[in-house]
C-alpha cells in the first residue's frame, strides 16, 4: 500500500491513528496474499541482494556516509518505507564488517516483516538479534529514537555490546538504560539514536516521567519506534500484570498476623472454597461464623467491620492460591516473587492490595510496608503509544488473532535457514507424579550413560530440587539451575545453560532460565569416543582419531586427559603414534599406518540435545519455547514431555475425564502411555487455561483502556501546568466555586440564599475553616452563580495584594507546586478507587446492566469527582492562606 501523509497530530493521537492504519493495511495484505506472506516479501529481498555487490565496493567512510544521505532524503519528503531496501542493504553490509556475520536471506525476510511493523516468528537459534539490526537502523534514521526492548537487563546489555558497533560504524549513537543508572545516565541513553533496555525499565521510566515535579526531570522522549524481542512474553504474558510505580505506607501488622492465624486453622472446602481454574478463593458461611466468633462481632459485613473483609480475603488467597518455591521464595528473611515465565527472582517487585503482607504473615516474616500506587499502566497501553511497533518471537503464530485485535500486528512465520531435524516425541502420560519422576530418572540415566546431553526443564524450584536429590541418589552427576542456585547472578545462570550441551551433561533448569542463551550441543559423543580410545590404549594399542575441527580435538583431549592418556593434536602428516598413545588429526586425509587403530569422530554422534519437560505448561507457547532449546540451525535434537494425571494442569482442568482412563486403555501400573486420546486431554486442558488467560488479558486491557482515557486527560492537564501554563484565572474560578459551595452547604443550589442566612452561614464557616471570610453587605437573596461570582471577585482583590507583595514569578511557582501536589494525591486515590471498583463491579452492576457498562459509568463518575477534589483542595489550600494573609478587601479601605 502507498504511504499515507498525515497532518501533524498529538503524539498519543498520532500513535492511535498509525495503529488503526496498520490494522487496515495488515487486514488488506492478509486478504490479498493470504496463502504465503513470504511471497510478498520476496521482491524486496531480491532487490536487497542485487544491491549487495554495490555495498561491498563502498569504503567504510562511504558506507557511513549513507546515513547522512538517507536522513537528507527523509528531510526532503521521502518516507522510511521509501528507504527500506537501500537502508537494509547498507545495514546488512555494516553488520558483516562489524561482526563477521552477514544476515542470511531468511534473516532479511524477518527484517522485512519487522520493517513493515509486523511480528516475525523465527525459531530459536535463527539469529533474531542480528535480524533486528536492519529495521532498527531504518527507524533510527528518523532521529526520533528507536527502542530495542528485551525481557531482561542482561539481554539488553549483551545485545547492545554485540550490535552496538554495527550502528556506530554507520554514524549512529547507541545507548543502554537499566535500573541501576542515575536520571542523567538514563536521559543520555534515551537521547541516543538507538536505545537498548528491558520492558520493565521502559515502563517505569515512563511512569516516573509522568510524576516529575519539573519538565527538566524527564528522561524519555516521545515514543516513536519499538522492536520487542520475545514479543509474546511482553505483550501477552505480561499483559495480566500492569506496571506500577508505588510508594509505601505503614501497614497494620497485627491485622495481617491475626487473619493469617485464623485462616491457618480453617479447612479448605469447609470454611473456604478454591477454584483453581479461575485462580479464585472465597469464604463460606461456615468460615464466616468462625471469623465472626474469633473477632467477637455480629456481622463481618457491617460497615464498621469492612476493613476486616479485605484482610480475610487476602489471607485466604495467600493460604490457598500461592505455593512457596513456585510463586515465591523466602531468603534472608524476605519474601520475593518468582517470575512465572522465567523462574527468576524479582527482588524489586511486590504484590499489591495487601497480598504481599498476607504472604509475609503466612510465612512468619517481618511485614513490610504496604504499597500505594502513584501511577500505573498496562503493557498493552504502554506500547500502544508507539506509532511504529514490531516484534520478534519463536512462538507467536498461535496467538496471531490476539496480536491483530489488540495491536494491529500480523504474524509472519519466517522459514528456518536449515531444515529442523529435531524429533518431538509424543508425551508419556503416567498415573502418578512418582511414576513420572521415576521414568524421567530412567531417561536421564540412559542418556547420561550414552553420552547424550539432556536438559530437564521444570516449572518450579521445588521440583528442580527434588529431582536433583533423586539424581544424586542414583549417582548421576548433574548441574542445577534455579532461582536459588544462582540467585540474581544472570551471568552464572547463562554460563551453566551454555554448558548444558556438553556430551554426557545432565542439566536441571527451571522455566526458560538463561533466556537468549544459545545451547550449542556437542555433536560428537566425546564420552563414548573417549571410552573407546581409553579401552584401546589400555591394551597397548595406538589410536588415530580423525576430527573435523580444532574445537572437537580440544574437547576430546580434555576427556582423554582425565584418563591420563598421552595425546597429540596435529593438522599434518606425522608418524603413527606409539603403543598406548592417541593421535588426534584435523582434516588429514591419508591412510593409517599399521598397527594403529583408526576412529572417526563423525562415527560417534550424540544425537544433539535431548530436552525433557517434567510437565506441560499452561501455554503451548511455553512448551514450544522449551522444545526450541534443541535442534538449532539444522542440528539433531529431541524432546519429550512427561505428564502425570496428578499434574496441576490435568487435575484442575480435565480431572473428571481422566479418572480411570489409563485403566480403560489397559496401561500397566507404574508405566506410561503415549496414546493420542490422552494427548487430546492435555491439549484440551491447555486450551481451557489459555482461554482463561485470554479472558483475563482482555478484561485487564478493557479496564485499563478506561483508565487510559482518564490518564491522558489527567496528564495532559498536569503537563500543561508543568510547562508553565498560567493558572491564575482557573484558580480564581476554583476559589469562587469552593467558597460558594462551602457557604451554601447542603442547600439546594437552585434556590437563592437570603441575606441573613448568608451572614449566619459565613459566620459559622469562619469558625469551621479557621480563616477570615469576606465581609459582605448583601440586601437581597443570592443565587449560586451570583454568590460564586461575588466570592471570585473578593478573592481576586486579595490575590492582587499577594502578587504585589511576593512577586508574580514566586506566586506562579507556588500555584504550580500546590496544584501538582493536589493532583498527584488525588490521582493516587483515583487509582485505588478504580481498583476497588474492579473488585466490586459485580455488586455495583444492577438489573440488566452489564458489569462492563456499570464499570464505565461508575469510573466516569469517579474521575469527575477526582477532578473536583483537585479543584477543591487547591482552592482551600491556596485561598485559605491568602485569606489569612489579606483578611480584608483592599478596595474597602479605599
Summarize this, please?
By secondary structure, this protein is an alpha/beta fold. The chain has 5 domains: 34-241 and 381-413, 3-Layer(aba) Sandwich (Rossmann fold), CATH 3.40.50; 251-368, Alpha-Beta Complex (Pre-protein croslinking domain of SecA); 423-523 and 607-690, 3-Layer(aba) Sandwich (Rossmann fold); 526-603, Rossmann fold (3-Layer(aba) Sandwich); 726-893, Helical scaffold and wing domains of SecA (Orthogonal Bundle). Mean pLDDT is 88; it is low at 1-11 and 28-33.
What would your notes on this structure say?
By secondary structure, the protein is of the alpha/beta class. The protein has five domains: 34-241 and 381-413, Rossmann fold (3-Layer(aba) Sandwich), CATH 3.40.50.300; 251-368, SecA, preprotein cross-linking domain (Pre-protein croslinking domain of SecA, Alpha-Beta Complex), CATH 3.90.1440.10; 423-523 and 607-690, P-loop containing nucleotide triphosphate hydrolases (Rossmann fold, 3-Layer(aba) Sandwich), CATH 3.40.50.300; 526-603, Rossmann fold, CATH 3.40.50.300; 726-893, Helical scaffold and wing domains of SecA (Orthogonal Bundle). 53% of the residues lie in helices and 13% in strands. It has 33 helices and 25 strands. A seven-stranded parallel beta sheet has the order 3-4-2-5-13-1-14, sandwiched between helices. Strands 15, 16, 17, 18, 19, 24 and 25 form a seven-stranded parallel beta sheet that branches. Strands 21-22-20-23 form a four-stranded parallel beta sheet, covered by helices on one side. A hairpin with a 2-residue loop joins strand 9 (328-331) and strand 10. Helix 5 packs across helix 6. The chain is globular and about 130 Å long. The protein starts with 10 loop residues before the first helix and ends with a helix. The relative contact order is 0.07. Residues 1-11 and 28-33 have low confidence and may be disordered.
Amino acid at each position: 500500500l502507498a504511504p499515507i501523509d498525515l497532518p501533524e497530530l498529538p503524539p498519543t493521537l498520532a500513535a492511535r491513528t498509525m495503529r488503526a492504519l496498520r490494522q487496515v493495511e495488515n487486514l488488506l495484505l492478509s486478504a490479498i496474499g493470504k496463502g504465503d506472506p513470504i511471497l510478498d516479501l520476496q521482491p524486496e529481498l531480491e532487490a536487497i541482494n542485487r544491491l549487495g555487490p554495490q555495498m561491498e565496493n563502498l569504503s567504510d567512510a562511504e558506507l557511513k556516509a549513507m546515513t547522512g544521505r538517507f536522513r537528507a532524503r527523509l528531510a526532503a519528503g521521502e518516507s522510511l518505507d521509501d528507504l527500506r531496501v537501500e537502508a537494509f542493504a547498507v545495514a546488512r553490509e555494516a553488520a558483516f564488517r562489524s561482526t563477521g556475520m552477514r544476515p542470511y536471506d531468511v534473516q532479511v525476510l524477518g527484517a522485512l516483516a519487522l520493517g513493515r511493523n509486523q511480528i516475525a516468528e523465527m525459531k530459536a537459534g535463527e539469529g533474531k538479534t542480528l535480524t533486528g539490526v536492519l529495521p532498527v537502523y531504518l527507524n533510527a534514521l528518523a532521529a526520533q529514537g528507536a527502542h530495542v526492548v528485551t525481557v531482561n537487563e542482561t539481554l539488553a546489555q549483551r545485545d547492545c555490546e554485540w550490535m552496538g558497533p554495527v550502528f556506530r560504524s554507520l554514524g549512529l549513537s547507541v545507548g543502554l538504560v537499566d535500573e541501576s543508572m542515575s536520571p542523567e545516565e538514563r536521559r543520555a541513553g534515551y537521547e541516543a539514536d538507538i536505545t537498548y533496555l528491558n520492558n520493565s525499565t521502559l515502563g517505569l521510566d515512563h511512569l516516573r516521567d509522568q510524576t516529575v515535579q519539573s519538565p527538566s526531570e524527564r528522561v524519555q522522549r516521545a515514543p516513536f519506534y519499538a522492536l520487542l524481542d520475545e514479543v509474546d512474553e511482553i505483550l501477552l504474558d505480561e499483559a495480566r500484570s500492569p506496571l506500577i510505580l508505588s510508594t509505601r505506607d505503614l501497614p497494620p501488622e497485627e491485622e495481617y498476623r491475626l487473619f493469617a492465624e485464623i485462616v491457618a486453622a480453617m479447612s479448605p472446602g469447609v470454611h473456604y472454597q478454591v477454584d483453581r481454574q479461575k485462580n479464585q478463593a472465597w469464604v463460606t458461611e461456615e468460615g464466616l461464623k468462625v471469623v465472626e466468633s474469633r473477632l467477637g462481632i455480629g456481622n463481618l459485613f457491617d460497615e464498621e467491620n469492612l476493613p476486616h473483609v479485605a484482610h480475610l480475603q487476602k489471607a485466604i488467597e495467600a493460604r490457598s492460591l500461592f505455593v512457596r518455591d513456585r510463586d515465591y521464595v523466602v531468603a534472608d528473611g524476605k519474601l520475593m516473587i518468582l517470575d512465572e515465565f522465567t523462574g527468576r527472582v524479582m527482588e524489586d517487585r511486590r504484590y499489591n492490595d495487601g497480598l504481599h503482607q498476607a504472604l509475609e504473615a503466612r510465612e512468619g516474616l517481618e511485614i513490610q510496608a504496604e504499597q500505594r500506587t502513584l501511577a500505573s499502566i498496562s503493557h498493552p497501553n504502554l506500547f500502544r503509544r508507539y506509532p511504529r511497533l514490531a516484534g520478534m518471537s519463536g512462538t507467536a503464530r498461535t496467538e496471531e488473532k490476539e496480536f491483530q485485535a489488540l495491536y494491529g500486528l500480523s504474524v509472519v512465520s519466517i522459514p528456518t535457514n536449515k531444515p529442523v531435524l529435531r524429533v518431538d516425541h509424543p508425551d508419556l502420560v503416567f498415573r502418578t507424579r512418582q511414576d513420572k519422576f521415576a521414568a524421567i530418572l530412567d531417561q536421564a540415566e540412559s542418556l547420561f550413560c550414552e553420552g547424550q546431553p539432556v536438559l530437564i526443564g521444570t516449572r518450579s524450584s521445588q521440583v528442580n530440587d527434588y529431582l536433583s536429590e533423586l539424581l544424586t541418589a542414583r549417582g548421576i552427576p548433574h548441574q542445577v539451575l534455579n532461582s536459588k542456585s544462582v540467585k540474581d547472578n544472570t551471568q552464572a545462570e547463562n554460563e551453566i545453560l551454555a554448558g548444558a550441551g556438553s556430551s554426557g551433561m545432565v542439566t536441571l533448569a527451571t522455566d526458560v532460565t538463561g533466556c537468549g542463551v544459545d545451547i550449542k550441543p556437542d555433536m560428537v559423543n566425546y564420552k563414548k569416543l573417549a571410552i573407546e580410545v581409553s579401552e584401546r590404549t589400555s591394551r597397548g594399542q595406538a589410536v588415530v582419531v580423525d576430527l573435523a575441527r580444532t574445537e572437537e580435538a580440544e574437547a576430546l583431549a580434555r576427556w582423554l586427559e582425565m584418563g591420563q592418556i598421552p595425546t597429540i593434536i596435529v593438522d599434518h602428516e606425522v608418524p603413527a603414534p606409539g603403543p598406548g598413545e592417541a593421535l588426534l588429526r584435523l582434516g588429514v586425509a591419508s591412510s593409517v599406518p599399521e598397527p594403529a587403530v583408526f576412529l572417526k569422530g563423525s562415527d560417534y554422534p550424540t544425537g544433539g540435545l535431548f530436552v525433557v519437560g517434567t510437565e506441560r505448561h499452561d501455554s503451548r507457547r511455553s512448551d514450544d519455547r522449551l522444545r526450541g532449546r534443541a535442534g538449532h540451525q539444522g542440528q539433531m535434537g529431541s524432546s519429550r514431555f512427561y505428564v502425570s494425571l496428578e499434574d496441576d494442569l490435568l487435575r484442575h482442568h480435565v480431572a473428571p475425564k481422566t479418572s480411570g482412563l489409563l485403566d480403560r486403555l489397559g496401561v500397566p501400573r507404574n508405566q506410561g502411555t503415549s496414546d493420542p486420546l490422552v494427548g487430546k486431554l492435555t491439549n484440551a486442558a491447555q486450551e481451557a487455561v489459555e482461554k482463561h488467560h485470554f479472558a483475563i488479558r482482555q478484561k485487564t486491557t478493557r479496564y485499563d483502556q478506561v483508565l487510559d482515557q482518564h490518564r491522558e486527560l489527567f496528564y495532559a492537564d498536569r503537563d500543561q501546568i508543568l510547562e508553565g501554563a498560567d493558572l491564575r484565572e482557573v484558580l480564581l474560578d476554583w476559589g469562587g466555586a469552593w467558597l460558594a459551595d462551602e457557604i451554601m452547604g447542603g442547600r439546594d443550589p437552585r434556590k437563592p440564599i437570603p441575606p441573613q442566612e448568608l451572614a449566619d452561614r459565613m459566620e459559622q464557616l469562619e469558625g469551621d475553616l479557621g480563616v477570615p471570610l469576606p465581609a459582605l453587605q448583601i440586601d437581597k437573596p443570592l443565587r449560586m452563580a451570583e454568590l460564586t461570582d461575588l466570592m471570585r471577585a473578593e478573592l481576586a482583590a486579595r490575590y492582587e495584594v499577594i502578587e504585589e507583595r511576593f512577586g508574580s514569578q514566586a506566586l506562579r511557582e507556588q500555584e504550580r507546586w500546590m496544584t501538582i501536589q493536589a493532583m498527584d494525591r488525588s490521582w493516587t486515590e483515583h487509582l485505588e478507587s478504580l481498583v476497588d471498583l474492579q473488585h466490586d463491579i459485580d455488586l455495583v452492576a444492577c438489573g440488566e446492566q452489564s458489569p462492563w457498562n456499570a464499570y464505565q459509568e461508575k469510573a466516569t463518575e469517579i474521575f469527575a469527582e477526582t477532578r473536583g477534589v483537585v479543584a477543591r483542595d487547591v482552592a482551600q489550600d491556596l485561598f485559605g492562606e491568602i485569606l489569612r494573609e489579606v483578611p480584608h478587601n483592599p478596595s474597602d479601605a479605599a
